[in-house]
Amino acid sequence: MATRRLLIVDDDPAFRTVARALLDGEAFQVAGDAATGSAALAEVVRLRPAVVLLDVQLPDTSGFEVCPALIRAGAAVVLTSVREAADYGPLVERCGARGFIPKRALSAEELTRVLDTV
Amino acid sequence: MGALALGGAAFGVQTTFIAAGVPNSDAFRVTLHAVAGMLFLVSGLLAHYRRPTNRVGLLMMGVAIGFFAEDLQLSGVAWAHTLGQLTVAASSPFLVQLALAFPTGRLETRPQRILAGVAYAGAAATGLIIALFVDQHARFAENAVGLLLISDNVAVESVMKVASPLTAFFVSVGLMVVLIRRWLRSRQLMRSLLAPVLTLLIAGGLFSSIGQFSQSFSFIEDRFSLYDTFIRSYDVFFAILPLAFLSGMIYFYLGRGAVNRLLRQLREPKEVGEIEELLSHSLRDDSLRVAFTADPGPVDEQGAPVPIAPFQTVTPLGGSGHRQAVLVHDSLLTEDPRVLEAVAAAAGLALANQSLAAQVAAQLAEVRASRARIVKAADDERRRIEQNLHDSAQSRLVTALLNVNLVRRTLARQDAREADLLALVSEALTASLAEIRVLAQGLYPALLTAGGLSIAVDELVAQLPLPVDTDLGPLPRFAPEVEAAAYFVVAEGLTNALKHAQATRLRVGMRHAGATLTVTVADDGRGGADHATGSGLQGLLDRVAALGGDLTLHSPAQGGTTIKAVLPVDTR
């Protein structure tokens, strides 16, 4: 299976580092990261990633709000958060994201599973 | 005073008989004179009883008795005829003084006193000169010979014929000047008193003058009937005059009922404007203002100066709190000091009540606002703590967990035994995260902030093990404190239904209409819930009341429980 280019969007540098270490490998190639919603919009145009791992809570906007623009730019979006899926109810589905992974359960396998589940 | 009136009436009957007994007497005029005299007498008595300290009533009775006495000259009895000659113009000076002193009963200025003095002196002189020098018996055989007659002096008589009307003319003009000046200087109250009197005096004076004038000139055809018409009209005006004085006295001096009514109305706390309107209307003084003492002069509620007109007086109002309130009013009102005092005291009290009521209302509003602020502050704090947990503790724990998992994976490839130890760390971290999540969720639901009320309540309901009918409408976003209150009403209602009610079905409704949001939670359980027993319910009650809303609990035994909150909302 082809390696998918991944953009990590999260304002916490410690999380970006560990996520990069966790996810960069056979399944995903981390093309870059962004700390804000607006940076994410710029990077998604510049780097053309196949997948964006998007934190729900960003300093300048929310993941739900920026998600549709990232999808229009051609990326599949998977939301992530310290909180659980139930904390966001129907909002994940409504914003067009492929799915949600709580940060505690983040792994390349889980991300692949979410992306490949239709 | 009753005796004076009774004596006057008897005297009037007597002189009317004398006047009627004269051959060829005019029955119409005799009757009208009798009626006029009696009306003055009775009106005077009534005016006196209305206001015993006011001289107006007495003066009216004076006019009546003087008026009757004038007819005594028609008597065939010598002493009565002589008395009649002496009092030939007795009613006029009383009438002049009455008109000058109305409605206070006092002659206020020097010109007024001089004018009245001239009227009395003129009347006395006229009477005396006629008694001494005019022999009426020589002209009218039925009249007696005057006891004081010195000689029938034609020269004196012809001087009298000029001097007497001339004096009357000047006194009348003086009287008119005084009354018209008083009219011009006064406002509503005095004018409404003066209007009928002034109208009748001017009309009477006019008709009398035209009558005299028509008699003096022979070129006017049929002059006697013309004279009769005008003189009779004058008699009618004169007969009505006492009623004008009496109505003025009744109108001016408020009756006990009117005062009591006014005092009763002043018992309620009232705005300054309302008090002003009430007093102005009740006391018939459209110049009346409620003001507050200041330097240099009184000011109104807004601080604008309240001018004091020359005809006005300032009376302090009792007990008005921090500001000294005063009444600026027509000086005429001081004629009735007891009424003014009572009204001022009551108005002062009403003002004090009003300022107290305003203070209480302001305090109540402040308490409400502060209660709302307290609830909002508590909510804000809960939301802040939930956010902090998310931003710091939970984020760090998650990152730590992921790092541990990363290391675990690497170690697992090397078959290191430490990997098992790290699995324990990973489990502990996961458990801690779960506990913190429960704590954070209870503090403030993240979904409420992110998704709004219907989404958050929908999610809450979805987690329940029972079927729930929901009617959550499409709702706009409300202020955070309103959304929080509505959310916690639902959460607490559902918790109670599950814990205590043994319910099998639940219903949650939220409806937004106009400026209210109505939240209903109902179950089919055993009922019997009470605010007092559940601290959760009491907390909800406080929370809803703090927002100015209303929470009702309907929970009959075995009849299910319905909690309904009505919250005032501003949509955002």
Automatic annotation (TrEMBL), chain A:
A Pfam family the protein falls into: Response_reg
InterPro entries attached to this UniProt entry: Bact_response_regulator, CheY-like_superfamily, NreC/VraR/RcsB-like_REC, Sig_transdc_resp-reg_receiver
Domain of life (superkingdom): Bacteria
Record flagged with keyword Flavoprotein: no
Modification sites for 4-aspartylphosphate: 55
Keyword Aminoacyl-tRNA synthetase: no
Keywords of this entry: Phosphoprotein, Two-component regulatory system
Response regulatory domain residues: 5-118
Biological process, per Gene Ontology: phosphorelay signal transduction system
PANTHER family given in the database record: PROTEIN PILG (PTHR44591:SF14), STRESS RESPONSE REGULATOR PROTEIN 1 (PTHR44591)
Protein's UniProt name: Response regulatory domain-containing protein
From TrEMBL, chain B:
Gene3D superfamilies named in the record: 1.20.5.1930, Histidine kinase-like ATPase, C-terminal domain (3.30.565.10)
InterPro entries, A to Z: HATPase_C_sf, HATPase_dom, Sensor_HK_TwoCompSys, Sig_transdc_His_kin_sub3_dim/P
Enzyme class: transferase
Superkingdom field: Bacteria
Annotated keywords: ATP-binding, Kinase, Membrane, Nucleotide-binding, Phosphoprotein, Transferase, Transmembrane, Transmembrane helix, Two-component regulatory system
Residues spanning the membrane: 30-49, 56-77, 83-102, 114-134, 162-180, 192-214, 234-254
Protein species of origin: Acrocarpospora corrugata
PANTHER family: NITRATE/NITRITE SENSOR PROTEIN NARX-RELATED, NITRATE_NITRITE SENSOR PROTEIN NARQ
Keyword Kinase carried by entry: yes
Name of protein: histidine kinase
Cellular compartments per GO CC: membrane
Keyword match Membrane: yes
Catalytic activity line of the entry: ATP + protein L-histidine = ADP + protein N-phospho-L-histidine
Documented EC number(s): 2.7.13.3
CDD domains: HATPase_UhpB-NarQ-NarX-like
Any one GO MF annotation of this record: ATP binding
